[in-house]
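Hello,

Our lab assistant flagged a job as stuck in the queue for most of the afternoon. It eventually completed. Since we weren't sure the result was trustworthy after the delay, we are filing this so someone can double-check. Below is the sequence as submitted and the structure that was eventually returned. Let us know if re-running is recommended.
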Amino acid sequence: MTKPGQPGAIKADILVISPHPDDAEFGTSGSVARWVNEGKTVVYVVCTGGEKGTDDPGVDPDHLRETRKKEQRKAAGLLGVKEVVFLDYEDQALEDTPEFRRDIVRCIRRYRPETLISADPYRRYIWHRDHRITGQVVLDAAFPYARDHLSYPELLEEGLMPHKVKEILMWASEDPNYFSDITETFETKLAALRCHDSQVGGRDFSTMEKWLRKRAEDAAREQDFTLAEAFHRAEILW
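-- returned structure --
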């Protein structure tokens, strides 16, 4: 299999860049399921292993990291995601560094998507810092770094040519302007979330389902469909 950063990768229509395993399932999995059903190729990039995502003091972080990777692969397989890339950064330790940005640029140039999806970095007040950092780095990586050939010239040596993304969708936005119909794929979204047993297995899933359905109904309130995922959409025009 081609490794991250090497030429010869599959071409993705949509590249989803997630801070932790399970974030994409909460933020965009209903849309991912619909897009896959429509014939689009979706690839996941997961920035951290999520090894600190527990309130159990007896859990070994290394074991949890591997568990969460397995859960993410299972969820992605259920949704029809073509490939999952793990960048293996430390959970709760993401920083806006040139190295992290280069890794995201590498993935963008490798998979050459038209659409990028990630967490909105501009959500105010209470927001996981890894989400905030990931979203900002994704925006910067897409424009201008992935586009400009003099940005990270070492990637040219890897055979990775510049790529211009057409649009970016940011989940959990306080300024949504794009609403994706998940009426027919909401149950698939729930099934994908159930794959993350280390995160949702100890909870009353019926309560979570009600919360997710209410959120999807609210997002679709002014649309001509019943359930939606909401994003802030930005086009890259130049």
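-- support follow-up --
The delay was a queue issue, not a problem with the job. The result is valid. The chain has one domain: 14-235. The chain is about 40% helix and 15% strand.
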